[in-house]
Specification:
Rossmann fold; two-stranded antiparallel ribbon; 6 helices; 7 strands
């Protein structure tokens, strides 16, 4: 059974543009893939532990090959458990609003917790880093209140640390196949906001149908 994990990083439940577009994707994907198992991981309702002294000590003990203490092992096990959501899913869907030109701090917190050696990446002195989330595809919904295109009177592309940072992280942890939908100008009043959301939902639904079709075609024996 295919599995889809939706990681939501907006605290808004009713007016969130990123969530609205993500739900459009899930709805059409489910319609095309009725056997898909969908799991939601809301980072605002998920307990994210502090990366405290025990976790830091566990990290360096692992790097040095030193056995972990009980408290260090407990801290490290929590990180493995959080990362297991990513490992177990076939398809990853992220809905991300832009905050101060970047991503919400809850998502950054999650990334900082799970991006550890032998959890989401490995390291070889000769070959360097290798991501461990291989063979997966990510769909990312980006929401922005303003426009970040070069000809806009609002902040230009060099202010965009949302998409560039997040997709560099995806690449680092091994996810090479990434599709995105961007909804912008959500602060430009009801008419502009509504049109932007409608267009983004249409793109997300179309992306879901195309993805489902390609997956179904891939399963047909030649």
């Amino acid at each position: 059974m295919p599995t889809l994990l939706h990681i939501a990083s907006s605290p808004r439940k009713h007016r969130s543009a990123s969530l609205e577009v993500a739900r459009a994707f899930v709805s059409d994907y489910r319609a095309c893939m009725p056997h898909v198992q969908v799991t939601d991981l809301d980072l605002w309702e998920t307990e994210l532990p502090e990366f405290d002294a025990h976790a830091m000590a566990a990290k360096y003990a692992g790097l040095e090959g030193i056995p972990l203490t009980a408290s260090q092992q407990q801290a490290w096990d929590r990180l493995h458990q959080l990362a297991s959501h990513l490992h177990e899913a076939d398809l990853l869907l992220f809905s991300i609003p832009i905050w101060n030109f970047s991503i919400p701090y809850r998502l950054k917190h999650f990334i900082d917790l799970v991006s550890q050696k032998d959890i989401l990446f490995s390291f070889d002195p000769e070959k360097g880093f290798s991501g461990l989330l291989t063979g997966k595809k990510a769909i990312v919904i980006y929401a922005r209140g303003l426009s970040y295109v070069a000809d806009s009177f609002t902040p230009a592309p060099e202010f965009d640390y949302q998409k560039s940072y997040f997709e560099q992280w995806l690449k680092f942890v091994g996810i090479k196949e990434v599709e995105s939908v961007i909804v912008e100008k959500t602060l430009f009043g009801t008419e502009v906001d509504g049109a932007a959301r409608e267009q983004a939902c249409f793109q997300a639904a179309q992306l879901a149908r195309n993805l489902a079709q390609s997956q179904q075609t891939a399963r047909i024996p030649s």
